[in-house]
């Protein structure tokens, strides 16, 4: 199966097929409203506004699996994003990205691009230290490690990049721009 064979559910309960995104660049991100990385919404919205007319779609999938940092309902999450970040891209229903209840799309994405580390810098070091306490073997599995992990899918449905939340958003934007 490929990217276009999967679907997710939007916040209104409608099925959204990845086949609807054929020919577009897609940024898939698990989000949270109460996380230190929540300000990434600002950069994601800026990318969406800049590139949406050229073929960028954002698949915002709220997830409450990381320290309970997305406790609200789908409506509350949407309201938060509108109020604080004026997001215009559609949001999906709150879902799991790891474990038995994970979205099949996320199983596929992780198979395509596994975890390769948090990079360098203070945020990367802090994430490594925190995750070692939670899972000593975290480096050796493809699971999503935290909120705002991003996957970039090209216009042909290939998963071309995975960015951990500690990655500079400028690198994410550069990757997206290179595919537009």
TrEMBL record:
It comes from the Bacteria. PROSITE patterns: GLUTATHIONE_PEROXID_1, GLUTATHIONE_PEROXID_3. GO terms for biological process: cellular response to oxidative stress. GO terms for molecular function: peroxidase activity. The keyword ATP-binding does not apply. CDD domains: GSH_Peroxidase (cd00340). Keywords: Oxidoreductase, Peroxidase. The active site is at residue 35. Belongs to the glutathione peroxidase family. This is Glutathione peroxidase. It comes from Butyrivibrio proteoclasticus (strain ATCC 51982 / DSM 14932 / B316).
